[in-house]
Amino acid sequence: MVGSLEQVAYAIRAYNKFLITWHVDPDPDSVGSGLALQEALQAMGKEVICVSPDPLGDWFDFLPGVDSCRVISQDLIFAVDAVIVEDCEPDRCGGLVPYLQSGVPVINIDHHETNPGTGQAFYINPKAAATGEIIYQLITEHLHVPLTEAMATNLYAALSGDTGTFRYSNTNSRVLSIASELVKYGADPAEVAVHLYENRAYEEVDMVRAALDTLEISPSGEMSWITVTRTMLGERQWSGQQSEDLIKYPRMIRTVKLAIMFRELKPARTKVSFRSRDNIDASKLAGLFGGGGHMYAAGCTIDKPLQEAKALVLETAAKVLASAYSNQSEGKGGEGQDGRHFGASQTPGDDLP
Ligand SMILES: [Mn+2]
Question: Which DSSP string corresponds to 60-77?
Answer without folding.
Answer: GTTSTTGGG-EE--TT--
